[in-house]
Amino acid sequence: MLPADVRPVSVDDHLIEPPHLWQSRLPAKFRDVGPRVIELEDGTQAWTFENQVVRTARGNTRTLPEFDQSPHGFARFEEMRPGCYEPKARLAEMDLDGVWAQLDFPDFSRFAGHRFIGCTDKELANACIRAYNDFLVDEWCAADPQRLHAVAVLPLWDVAGAVAEVERVATSGVKAIAFSENPTTLGLPSVYTDHWEPLWAAITATGLPICLHIGSSSKLLRSSPDAPDPVGLTFVGANSMIACADWLFSGVLERFPRLRVAFSEGGAGWVPYVLERADEVFENLGEVLAAKTPPREIFSRHMFTCIMRDDVALGSLDIIGDGNIMWEADYPHESGTFPNSRALLEKSMAKVPDEQARKIAETNARALFGI
């Protein structure tokens, strides 16, 4: 069970970028074309950026009690709980939720900062990336550097620029680097190519882990175009399964043995199946694979998963490894566990030995992310 003195660390939460973020940080020449919040005729608000108009899905936020609590439709900032976008208010939400510390990913910027890949003006795109990362350090995490932690994003369209950004933020206080779970769907080279080698080398030098958040490929798997959205939520971890197989067999983690990879918001119940299949593939077809180390060894040394509620994973700790699994609350997403995260975590850990529960809820995250 979960020891009473555990201070839970959630390794997957999100911040809704506040309206002032880019308007206060971009060079003046970019403010009229950079991200900014506008009013729409239907009464909603939206981000506009170059020629894009992007509304914030209500299900990605938490709504104040006096407003419609439905997760459907789109949210205005005054309808959101301030903890969605204001760091001091986020700390109050964490206190209410029983969460000591958290690791935050973006929303509008997309989970690997890949909103800006489609930007026609790459100087603007680079400035947007830098402004977001500076906001993380100077405003978000600065509100409480012991409890609020963040993942830096990169200009993935430019490897040299990505390396430079890694080196720029490495000592700023960010705790991880975001990368796409499948860069080919973004029109970028795969992890099987040597395209990313300078980036892996730069990240290795920092000691920071890489986070592969589900949806960071801009594509979640669907059974068919007309399948309702909840159908996809049933197998949402499939994206992490695919990314895991790529990283097991690409050889990257053998060429860069200090790299560590976290699969964010993908669950962990799929891990025993993937490792069993990967072992069979490696044994029977290993001669055509770049990787020369058995998959279970690569996973154990380099890979980390996270769960909200996952009884299958907790019943398979002997396979997954109690040092390779962490916990998440996913605030402020509607699918997350707020405001009952501590209570639900305790319920999940009721049959887990105390020291394993401590590792999953707190100390694994502290070790991986340096919290």
Automatic annotation (TrEMBL):
Pfam families: Amidohydro_2. The keyword Secreted does not apply. GO terms for cellular component: cytoplasm. Signal peptide: none annotated. Keywords: Lyase. Residues 79-371 form the Amidohydrolase-related domain. InterPro entries: ACMSD, Amidohydro-rel, Metal_Hydrolase. PANTHER family: 2-AMINO-3-CARBOXYLMUCONATE-6-SEMIALDEHYDE DECARBOXYLASE, ISO-OROTATE DECARBOXYLASE (EUROFUNG). This is Unannotated protein.
